[in-house]
Amino acid sequence: MNCYITGTGGYLPGDAINNEDISKYIGKLEGESEIKEKILRMNGIKQRHYALDRHQDPTHDVYELAALAVEDCLNNCGYKESIGYLSTGTTNAPLVAPGLASIVHSRLAEMGILQESIEINSNSGICTSAAQAIINACRVVRLGEQASALSVGVDQPSDILKSTSIDVPSDRDSHADDIKNSKWFMSVFLRFMLSDGAGAFLIQDEPAPDGISFQVNWTHSKSFANEAPLCMKLESRTLLLSQDVNVLNQYMSQYSRESVISAMETNNDRLGSYRIVLPHLSSYFFRRMMLKIIRELCSGSDETVDYWTNLETVGNTGTASIYLMLNEYIKSHDLRGGDKILLFVPESGQFNFVIISLTVVR
């Protein structure tokens, strides 16, 4: 049975915040001014959103962000029928248990959405947790267990990265020769990389009667944790988020390439048949890597494929990014029936990758 993305939506809290105003929301840490501008030049992000006011008090929690993204999704596509499955993904939520989907379900019911009992699924991880939520929702619909499902991706890193919450390691001075090797850097630089947002997809067993739908041709998920070391982690007791950039630079390009090749070979597909690739890029630092992979896999033919991202204007919203990207791409580009779009979501946690192939249906 086929399945289709028939609705997309997103929610970005508050006004867009320019780089000059970041510290007005997440505060300042000693020594970070030495790396701030370099990190911002490297990642290419010009503005972002925080679910914080200027006193570092939250304006929303992660559950509300998710619920507002679902509301936007359903409003965009005008869907008012019953939904049987809710699949969610995030990196961090205030409650370790119950799962994210339970609380999001209750928040949606309070809003007059999903007021019936349904099946739920919660995914945790780094950037691919909400991409896996898409896969799980697609499988339920494809198997015929549900006619419609919602998948949601949400992240609110500002809550644990703001200066009043984060407790960074104090080994900066002992790594003066190369600050990137310090545990201090591995946490502090993420304050200028990550921001808040949520996105949602409606997935059904038939295309929408009006507007644009996306047939899900195939999904591909591949972990390299059997080969690669831990790179990015969130410690449960301290809520300290960190990423080892040396490990990231050593493995990300190799496994990105291998995952795309594996996806194409497994599904008897070719990258050159796609109109566009929508990649979750944490930073424009990886732009050359993405272009190199695309050019290599399209070599020997007249086919060319480009990529598109809203990283510069939306920021790196982690698990929510692929949802927000497709939602904006629909609104800003003219799509024709038959156009193929590739969603590419790499995760540095211990190098997991999710790739989803879509075809436009009009």
Annotate the secondary structure layout.
Layout: E1 4-11, E2 17-18, H1 22-26, H2 33-43, E3 47-48, H3 62-77, E4 85-90, H4 100-110, E5 119-124, H5 129-142, E6 148-155, H6 158-161, H7 183-188, E7 197-204, E8 213-223, E9 232-234, E10 241-243, H8 245-266, E11 276-279, H9 287-297, E12 306-307, H10 311-314, H11 321-332, E13 340-347, E14 352-361
Parallel strand pairs: 4-5, 4-6, 11-12, 11-13
Antiparallel strand pairs: 1-7, 1-8, 2-3, 6-7, 8-14, 9-10, 13-14
Question: Could you explain how this protein is built, in words?
Answer:
This protein has 362 residues and is an alpha/beta fold. It folds into two domains: 4-204, Peroxisomal Thiolase, Chain A, domain 1, CATH 3.40.47.10; 213-361, Thiolase/Chalcone synthase (Peroxisomal Thiolase, Chain A, domain 1, 3-Layer(aba) Sandwich), CATH 3.40.47.10. The protein has eleven helices and 14 strands. A ten-stranded mixed sheet has the order 5-4-6-7-1-8-14-13-11-12, with helices on both faces. Strand 4, helix 4 and strand 5 form a beta-alpha-beta unit. The mean pLDDT is 95.
Shape: globular
Could you name the CATH homologous superfamily of the largest domain?
A: Thiolase/Chalcone synthase
The unreliable regions are none
Q: Mind telling me the C-alpha Rg?
A: 20 Å
Terminal Cα span: 19 Å
Taken as a percent bin, the fraction of beta residues is 15-25%
Quantity of strands, as a count: 14
Helix content: 25-40%
Count of domains: 2
Determine the CATH topology of the largest domain: Peroxisomal Thiolase, Chain A, domain 1
**H and E order:** EEHHEHEHEHEHHEEEEHEHEHHEE
Number of helices: 11
CATH architecture of the largest domain, by name, is 3-Layer(aba) Sandwich
CATH class descriptor of the largest domain: Alpha Beta
Largest sheet: 10 strands, mixed
Main-sheet strand order equals: 5-4-6-7-1-8-14-13-11-12
